[in-house]
Design brief:
single chain; 5 helices; Aminopeptidase; alpha+beta; globular
Length: 187
């Protein structure tokens, strides 16, 4: 088993997944507010399958969507991390920074804090030249996190997500990017 790095910030531990994370993750995946900008809620089986894919990515690459705990507050609040974007789009393949947190923990800066640690890992440890993030057009909360992280909206890169059917209300997506030079000038 490839251990993969554990990332720590002032308040967060980004770590590999544990069996005890599966129940709370399944619960947040059924929350209609959390899943508003996704195709739909995930039942327990699909949620567990997603965790299995995340863990397989750690085994393959040594990094991924880390399970997040808030030190001395909560043992699990969701995920933050890095994931390869490999679907068919003009900007792929690319490395995406992303997050999904339990609604009870929104508005406290955790996505930004963990996203920053993920970007430090991407540019420092992995040596990538660029990281992207994307979401549905109307997901203002995530777009604000992307902007706080220093990613800039690439209007020319906005796209219809190919994994969603034509006419689906969340098919239109916005693309945000940050390259190494922009990250280093910000750091």
């Amino acid at each position: 088993m490839r251990a993969g790095p554990e990332l720590r910030t002032d308040r967060l531990v980004l770590r590999r997944w544990r069996d005890g994370d599966r129940g709370p993750f399944a619960a947040l995946n059924t929350d209609p507010v959390v899943m508003e900008h996704f195709p739909g809620p995930l039942n327990r089986t699909k949620s567990d399958d997603f965790v299995d894919r995340i863990e397989a990515g750690f085994e393959e690459r040594g990094y991924g969507l880390w399970a997040v705990e808030v030190s001395d507050v909560a043992p699990f609040i969701g995920f933050i991390g890095l994931n390869p974007a490999t679907f068919d789009a003009p900007f792929t393949p690319a490395l995406e920074v992303g997050w999904r947190l339990d609604r009870a923990h929104w508005g406290q800066g955790y996505a930004t804090e963990g996203g920053r640690a993920s970007l430090e890992f991407a540019f420092g440890e992995l040596g990538v030249d660029e990281v992207v993030s994307f979401t549905t057009v109307r997901n203002d909360r995530s777009r604000r996190v992307m902007e706080r992280l220093g990613l800039r909206h690439d209007g020319d890169g906005d796209f219809d997500h190919p994994n969603l059917p034509h006419g689906h209300p969340i098919r239109p997506h916005v693309l945000y990017r940050i390259d190494r030079a922009a990250w280093e000038s910000k750091a």
